[in-house]
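Hi P.,

Sorry for the delay on this. The queue was packed all week, but I finally got your sequence through. Input first:
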Amino acid sequence: MLALSTDSLHGYGLNRIFEFIKEAGYDGADLVMEEKNFDTMNPDYVKKLVDEHGVPVLSLQIGDATPKKLKDAIEMAKAVGCKVIIIQPPSILNMGQTMWLKNEVPKIRAKENISIALENAPSDMILGFIPKHAMNNIDELRKFKHACIDTTRIALKRQDLIRVYKSLQKYLVHVHLSNVKGSKGYALPDDGILPLESFLTKMRQDNFPGTISMKVNPKFLQAGDDEKLLKHLTDMKKYYETYFVHPAMLDPSDASN
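Then the structure:
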């Protein structure tokens, strides 16, 4: 399944974002719940958009996963029929939240029958050498059992994408796909240093069952120019289809590039 992260169209209203997702032919939305964007926090309104546009919410993203925010996300998930919630690693300084995530979230996950997946941490540091986030390594993601990969974060940490994928394959439920161009993350998938073609083809070979969500900085999509934006969205869908949906149709020399 192919989703578009609503982060990719930040600046547009949520109704317009759903229109773009439908027009570009994506399978659904990867909805970022933002406390200051009231539309994204309103289950009734989001359900209305789902019904009006025929665009399902395939996944939800929340930032700092406090008990209150996770409760709100679960309510949203139930309202729109979503089965995946992506959460972020906590601050290294918040031991209480870290222990709650490790001890209580697996119980909530089982009770609610919803996949609550931990995303790999950004490369942010405190004082230049202390990781800003707890639960920020592959072992922690494996222990959490449900994992999400953000490909830009892997590149900015100078990790090997295919190696990380193989380590997490058993636990992987969601992927945020983007490339890194120069020092800039969240670039278009076909324009950067990451071997995303090989990554997508490998996931297809392994029958990856989760959702792949395009999460690209709006400036790379030329957001604000609707015609150019829509072309980028449709080009990204074609890219996904080439390397994930129909990789057998590739010329062998193309797959290795």
